[in-house]
Write a structure and sequence with these properties.
The structure is a homotetramer of 202-residue chains. Chain A is built from nine helices and no strands. With 202 residues, the first copy, chain A, is mainly alpha-helical. Chain A binds a DNA duplex (21 and 21 nucleotides) through residues 1-7, 10, 31-33, 41-45, 47-48, 52-53.
Chain lengths: 202, 202, 202, 202
DNA sequence: AATGAATGAGCCTTCATTCAT
DNA sequence: AATGAATGAAGGCTCATTCAT
């Protein structure tokens, strides 16, 4: 029962199915046929809309990255804090967003891991991940500077790497490190960095 | 000209070729033929020695893990430090080993990343990575306890995740973060954790 | 904005686009979608009008054959010549028509070649080409007989094959053999045949 | 029952099967699977030995061209003729070789036609056909010059095109023009060209 | 000990064709 | 009149794996 205006619906379904399937099998060795079936359509249609397997993967990456970006923007805007605590509140909000229920899903985590692998091969995937990293660092730096001054850069890099490290660890799926604990872990590192800066000023 | 006693030599060549090839293409999509050719033998022989592709991968993982383990042991034993600084010296040695010239190679980094992917599928790979994590945490914990007491566990987890995060970041290959900077980054986090513990005791 | 009476226009556009596309890619491996797009409509509409891909090809063949046929008729009627030279003039006109600017185009030449291929598969295409051959031979024979008598048949076959051979050679696209040279080549063969007949009568 | 030294045997079988299959279906739309099956092996093996479909086609072309080339060489060397008739005898031998039982087969004729189509797409196929044409013209020219002098070039081109034209005509498969008649047709054109040269010297 | 030979299985991709609107 | 939507079928190609030698 073909209808008009299906394209955005189909594309969206495919993107979501892609993330789900990558999460399910844990690697990029997902067939287009599986993705398409999971999205309720034929493989041919998937190709028709995206042009190829890598395009589908890239669209899935963009979806995840865009979603995270949007949520971060919303949360940052909503972050409140008395006096000088506002920057700290924004940092906490930023960290928590990375580990909230929407982004810190098994499927999304597995997808992340595989996007890193894809970035070894695909220049576009590489570019996308770098954009993500750039944004993350920029956000961290922006709110760290008023708090720790010249140590902002180093601390931003440390926290950025830590976030990814926690994701990576979660990809192993062993220990139960839920979103709350994960963000607590990173926030603790944030506070340690701030505390140290106060103790030993530059 | 087939010779006797070639097995260990062949196996070793295959393992090294596997790491090199995974590093070269940046994914597990390496053909057995490529690995075998790179190791100077026929695909059939590679099969004969390892029994299958996954076995080859697992052998490569074990090789990387074992090498790291050995070096850590050596370095820890060699670590010296006056008085209470001995534990700190051991921690620094542990961290530096993870980022020395032998382990922090592009090929090895790429292999690591892909071992995480493999661990999503292969139970044995998963087990191996957990063993690695366990050892790392255990090592960290052991030398952190005398320094930060009850905060050892949390700090160990934090540093462990940070190490992986730095590796992951390096897999993107963008910014020049050499081994020295990488270990400095993690050591800074270590010191921040210690400093915080001293400022705000439990 | 669908209009009435579009059918003949659409069909014509498709036929011309077919010839152009076959010429462009040099084979029958042209997709219906390409032809339709080149003709400014959807593949579905192309199908609607012709019923299938082979029908489109056949229509293109008929178009080329009919065009050639018409032009030959016109030129033959226009051919003048004093006394016994009239038949010779008609033969020359016939040959020249095959190599004039309208028929001796890269696209048409490539199409011709591929029509021969199509004729290996499609009975209708085969029939069409035979009709063309029949007409060509008949035309040649008709004006050769008054000149070379009993040798007309053999000479007609020879000239007919030669014309096709020149087309085939041109399909390779290498040497610059323009229409003028091509017809000169065939006319020279015609004159040679006539000269021989005069020298050694049957 | 795998054996050693199969490669040349397999390659040869594939080449022959390719020609046969192209002849059978009358176009290049032959699947590698069909060719392989017809040659008694799996499609994978065909790919293994040739690397791809086009390579298989090109190998088939080379085979046909090489075979023709060899036979021509042999026949030319064997051609005898009293006095000035030797060149004529060589020309006749050359023409006859093109239409003997080995080269003027339905399958080979169909293959020829399709090689022309392939030459529209594949540079290598194009090159091969040009080499063939170059040799044919060169051979014709060489033995025509002593007979018709300055008219050798034009006559060579004419005869070359005529040979191809006869092949093309035969590809239609209609009229029964056996090898003997075909070569007689071309030889008649040769003689006509010679006769004309004698009647009207340059 | 070592390998050339061989294949089954599977995947990405293309495309003619159909259909509801 | 016209098209976007959709797919079944098929083809080229790859590759891990097996086997006889």
């Amino acid at each position: 029962m073909p209808k008009v205006g299906m394209e955005p619906i189909r594309r969206d379904a495919l993107v979501k199915a892609t993330i789900a399937e990558i999460g399910r099998v844990g690697s990029l060795d997902v067939t287009v046929a599986e993705i398409a079936r999971s999205a309720g359509m034929s493989p041919a249609l998937a190709h028709h809309y995206f042009g190829g397997k890598e395009q589908i993967f890239l669209a899935a990456m963009r979806h995840v990255l865009r979603a995270l970006h949007r949520q971060v923007a919303v949360r940052l805007r909503a972050a409140r804090g008395d006096n000088g605590r506002r920057h700290h509140a924004r940092l906490v909000a930023l960290i928590r967003t990375n580990f909230d229920d929407e982004n810190y899903t098994p499927a999304v985590i597995a997808a992340w891991l595989n996007f890193y692998v894809l970035a070894q091969t695909s220049v576009e995937a590489n570019r996308l991940l770098r954009v993500y990293h750039g944004r993350l660092l920029s956000n961290l730096r922006h709110d760290l500077r008023p708090i720790v001054g010249g140590r902002a850069e180093a601390l931003a890099v440390r926290l950025g790497a830590l976030i990814d490290g926690v994701y990576l660890r979660q990809a192993l799926g062993d220990q139960a490190l839920d979103g709350k604990s994960a963000s607590a872990l990173v926030i603790a590192a944030l506070d340690a960095g701030i505390a140290e800066a106060n103790v030993r000023p530059e």
